[in-house]
Design a protein that fits this description.
The structure is a homodimer.
Chain A lengths: L1 H10 L14 E2 L10 H18 L1 E3 L2 H10 L2 E3 L4 E3 L2 H8 L5 E4 L8 E4 L2 E4 L7 E4 L3 E4 L2 H13 L21 H12 L10 H16 L9 E6 L4 E2 L1 H12 L3 E6 L2 E2 L7 H22 L5 E4 L3 E3 L6 E2 L3 H17 L3 E4 L10 H16 L4 E3 L4 E2 L4 E3 H19 L10 H7 L9 H6 L15 H6 L5 H14 L8 H17 L8
Parallel strand pairs in A: 2-11, 7-18, 8-20, 10-12, 12-14, 13-15, 14-17, 17-18
Antiparallel strand pairs in A: 1-7, 2-4, 3-4, 5-6, 8-9, 15-16, 19-20
Chain lengths: 508, 508
Amino acid sequence: MSEKRKRRGKRAKSTISWINTPFQQLKNPKPPTEWCSPAELDILHDGSMEILENTGIDFMDPAALALWEKAGAKVDHSAQHVWIDRGLLLELVAKAPSEFTWHARNPAYNIVVGGNNINITPNSGMPYVSDLDNGRRTSTLADFTNFVKLAHSVPLFHMTGGPFCEPQDVRNSLRHLHRNQTMVLNTDRCIRDVAHGPIITTDVIKMMQIVFGKDLPGAVTGGVINVNSPLRFDQRMLGGLMTNAKYGQVSLITPFIMAGAMSPVSIASALAQQNAEALAGIALAQLVKPGSPVIYGGFTQNVDMRSGSPAFGGPEGAWALLVGAQLARRYGVPYRASGSLTNSKTPDAQAAYETMWTMWPAIMAHTNFIAHGVGWLEAGLVASFEKFIIDLENVAMFTHYLKGFKIDRESLVLDEIHNVGSGGHHFGTDHTMANYDNTFYEPVLSDRLGYEPWVANGSEDALVRANKIWKQLLKSHERPALDIAIEEELADFVTRRERELEGIDLYG
Amino acid sequence: MSEKRKRRGKRAKSTISWINTPFQQLKNPKPPTEWCSPAELDILHDGSMEILENTGIDFMDPAALALWEKAGAKVDHSAQHVWIDRGLLLELVAKAPSEFTWHARNPAYNIVVGGNNINITPNSGMPYVSDLDNGRRTSTLADFTNFVKLAHSVPLFHMTGGPFCEPQDVRNSLRHLHRNQTMVLNTDRCIRDVAHGPIITTDVIKMMQIVFGKDLPGAVTGGVINVNSPLRFDQRMLGGLMTNAKYGQVSLITPFIMAGAMSPVSIASALAQQNAEALAGIALAQLVKPGSPVIYGGFTQNVDMRSGSPAFGGPEGAWALLVGAQLARRYGVPYRASGSLTNSKTPDAQAAYETMWTMWPAIMAHTNFIAHGVGWLEAGLVASFEKFIIDLENVAMFTHYLKGFKIDRESLVLDEIHNVGSGGHHFGTDHTMANYDNTFYEPVLSDRLGYEPWVANGSEDALVRANKIWKQLLKSHERPALDIAIEEELADFVTRRERELEGIDLYG
């Protein structure tokens, strides 16, 4: 009994059980859920090859066009357009690694991207943030910093840095400097940023060289390369892709397709187009540097035909996510999809169920890189601190779920069943006392009290409780150790580049 | 364009697209998700056989004990306890039909239970109801009637009758009469009720004989037979089971196991015990009448060790649901699980995500009978009108999801992709105009507007919108035609039985 009290006493130190979950590479031990048949996958593959061969695709950068021409593709320089034969394309795609290590500043937090490894990463790119205290507002560097700290405070994320939200109080062309500096200071786990053109992307890589050494150990950063669908890679994205490939850094090549707007009103058609676009980008990265790490990104949904908005968190997105994973596996490249997608303007029931319509398929599909695993609101325009917590409860539950449970003779504890017999109960048995504390998932946000105690506690709904939890979590953040020389060199770099970029608009 | 306006005009008649969804037998076209290996399933099977052979199980009814004794099981009459050999047990279980038809008053609404058929049914058994206008309160016959009408108003449910909520303004022993009368008057689709002892169950069957004729066409009603876990069938449940079996009506045999309370702290142990209990009940039904329709029910969760409450909507419940389906398939009997389980006290984000933690596994597992598909709050104590709508949006999405989408050459519409080319858009093309209206799921509850129009509409969250929708849906209810002779005979039956049961307490 004193043993028991001691254990309880220990746990009381942190009521947020997430903090005590060990960092681990998450794997889905079960076969992936496959939505379409091999024959259907062939149809999608063939269609996408025909698109690249007959319709072609824009690469709006002379350097990219030159690479394609040299490789033997048909290039129209004035139209910035390329037609790619399947032979050439598949030869290039085959050079991409099927899995790779993404290195963290602390190697204990390295992750493997590919295979049946699942990596869950937080929200990125939101221009607004919201919380219950201050409502919806333009996001700042302080908000960004808080998100880094929140992500770092729980070992459930496989990546604790990324462009969580736009630090809009910093000039556009300087934001990457402050994001990366903030990330390095506040977390020693895997990070990434944007890949917006060669200048920003090179800056990011130079900052990583300060942290990891001039000879990078492999992939240490990367960025999403959105295809400007239909069938166009713009110059900014190509600059990012080619710079990352050159330095062996990661491009998450993600066609941005809303069926009905960027593709025909047909999920099959959207997927064929997605496949053409993603593979074309993957192939270009291999043209720049064979073997450079890439991730096949799926972000195909439909347009809601009444509102004109993207339809996040529904059946169409779930199908596209599952089939996208099958396509990526067909080509032996890691797969990226999303997590917390929703159209809801507030962290209500809609926000929660729409998120589950993406998270469940993402887990079932063995998604190697789940972007936006938490935090979405409002079709990705708002990063919500409360939604971050609501989604994190589900990330924690999926982490527990994927670990599975033991089924062997011993786990049946037939003696216990026999001893308690018919009509009894198992409260307080030795077996229960020895196991109750560490067997089942222990929720942080979910309230399992009865009605009366819940009312006595203030009738708080999930939103109100989430507000308290993120503040508590934020307080628990501790800066990981960092060599003072690195910290100073980073600060010098930021200062120098701020000066050099004065008056220059990299997004002009 | 006038064509288009006409179509839009038509749709404007009902803004609730659910109403226009055709009634259909839902099937999961994909293989079921299997959580455990065949070897692990063997371990669970063997464990459950040992429980029945060595530990045994209570059957607290002399008639049931006599049946077991006659069949050759070892019976202790004074302890009301039975030990069942696996040979006898499996021989009996093999007599249960692997699938059967559940007949509706209107045969167009008959359903098939078993195989890869999924049937979604609404909430049942709640002592309280809640809605945004009147809050949480004791439920009444008027509430019950409203739930019947709501369920009947959308063709997405496979069963539109059941003990939605307790009509507490009617005396306990008379409620079944009023429930069944109300159901027959307000819906012509499949219904069920409780199976609380022989008198109530016989009354229910007699009422069905008035509706379907003395010779019932097969299964037309049924009830949940909860095992009083651990290892006890009480007399009330046995009376219901044996009466239903005698008349060829359905028993949904559902062990009520919260691991840590009714079983050891081990999901494997809980599942072995669940299997022993469910199979013992299935076997007894076959002893009463070989071939009588039964459903293997899974309702295994864990106890939350902090609050002592059942833990609904989490990883443990998801595992148990998936493995329960594998066990039911092993014995070739239909499977029942649940849908909208949650511990939340209000239809918030927690209520929504916990529900998804049961609905996703239920769909993936090919659950043949999803009980409580909508409406749960507060661990099943409250039937919420708003949650009914929130969950119904998800039922509609799963219905759309399971229908799948076409992947063939034609569906790729490569010509469209070619004609729009790079950097264009598909709004307004002939293909888009011809297909935008009927291809994608059209939500009813989910709001996909941008922030400003959402604010202009009153910043309504899902809860507020759900409140409007259930009222609108309720108004759309129309009584299906019913032979006046049947209506009168039912009324006479109710009046007569009310008189006969005066002063008698069937729950005493």
